[in-house]
Amino acid sequence: MNEHGHIELSTFWLPRQSSTIAHQVDFAWNVVTLVSIFFFVLVVGAMLIFVWRYRRRTEHDITSTVEHNFRLEVAWTILPLAICIGLFVVGFRGYVNASVPPGDALEIKVVATQWAWDFIYPNGTKSRNEFRMPAGRPVKVIMSAADTPKSDTEVRPAVIHSFFIPEFRVKQDVVPGLYTTLWFTAPEPLDTILLCTEYCGDNHSKMSASVKVMENAAFNEWMENGGDDAKGMPPAEHGLKLYSKYGCNACHTIDGSPRQAPSFKGLFGRKEAFNDGSEIAAVDENYIRESILNPTAKVVKGYQGIMPMFKGVVTDKEVDDLIAFIKTLK
Question: Which architecture characterizes domain 106-224 according to CATH?
Answer without folding.
Answer: Sandwich (2.60)
